[in-house]
Amino acid sequence: EAGVSVLLLRACLALLALPIYLLSFLGVWEPFCRKVFFPFILDKICIVHDKKSKKHKQELFRNLPDFRGPSGELKLLEIGTGSGSNFQFYPSGCKVTCTDINPNFQQSLSRNMKKNQHLHYERFLVAAGEDLHQVPSSSVDAVVCTLVLCSVHSVSSTLREVLRVLRPGGAFYFLEHVAAEHSSWKYFWQQVCYPTWKLVFAGCCLTRELWKNLEEAKFSELKIQHISVALPGTPIEPHIVGYGVK
User: Fold this and answer.
1) Distance CA 189, CA 125 (A)
2) Are 20 and 200 in contact (CB under 8 A)?
3) Residues ≥6 apart with Cβ < 8 Å to 44
4) What domains are there in the chain, each with its CATH number?
5) 40, 124, 180, 225: most buried, per Cβ within 10 A?
6) CB–CB of 235/189 below 8 Å?
7) DSSP secondary-structure letter at 37?
8) Radius of gyration over alpha carbons of the chain, in Å?
C-alpha cells in the first residue's frame, strides 16, 4: 500500500522536475549544479539552518579546546567546508585545514574567512571525504563534518579516513540530518522525495541512518544526541549531533 503510494508520488515529482532530469541525461545538470546552483542554494539553506542550529553548534563545539595537541595547538580539519559557516564556533588561534569536493564556494568562503580572523587558515584541499590522502595519518586533533555525510559516496570509507587522520585521543565532531522514524509521515515524504532530491541537491540522501555508521566505526568513545532541526518546506527534520574520540 505505502510502497505503491511512494512510487506514484515519486513519478509525479519526477514529472515536475522533468527539465532537470533531461538536463542530467544530457550531461548538463551536474556541472551546472556543482558550479552555480548548489553553491547558491546551499548558501541560502545554510543561513536558515545556521539560525536554527546555532545553539546546538555552540554546545557541540564548546569542548573543542580540550582536544588541543601536546604542543598546545589545535589542528582542525573540516570535511565539506562549503562556505565556512562553522568558522565562528572554532576557538581562537585554531589552525584550520579546509576540504571540499566542490571548489566553487570561494566567494562565500572568503567572506567567512574575512569575518573570522581569529583563526589560522592552513590550506584548502579539493578532496572527497573518502579520500584525504593529502592529509598525513594521525596529524590532526579534531575533524569536523556538518551536513556532509548525507552526500558522500561511502559513509564507512569517510569515517575510516577520519580515524586515520586523527591523532589518538583526537575527536570527530558531527551534525547531520538523518532518516525520520520509519512509521512517520516525515519518513514517507523522505522516501517520496528521495530520487529527485538526490538529483537536484548534488547527491544528498534523505534516508541515511548515520548513527548506525557511527556506532560501527571504531571510536573509543561516542556521544550521539538525536535532535530536531526542521527546515520549513523540506522533508528534513531529524538530526544527530555529537562527537567521537579516536
Assistant:
1) 36
2) yes
3) none
4) 1-245 (3.40.50.150)
5) 180
6) yes
7) I
8) 18
> Rounded to the nearest 5 degrees, what angle is found at the Cα of 152, between the Cα atoms of 147 and 156?
105
Express as a percent the part of the chain with pLDDT over 90.
89
> pLDDT of 175-190, one tens digit each?
999 999 999 999 999 9
What's residue 225's pLDDT?
97
Q: How far is the C-alpha of 214 from the C-alpha of 66, rounded, in Å?
A: 21
H runs (alpha helix) in the chain: 2-16, 18-25, 29-32, 38-61, 106-115, 155-165, 185-200, 210-216
Cα–Cα distances in Å, from 45 out to 15, 147, 187, 211?
A: 24, 11, 21, 23
Instruction: Give the pLDDT of residue 65.
Output: 97
Q: Which of 178, 181, 151 lies closest to 239, judged by CA?
A: 178
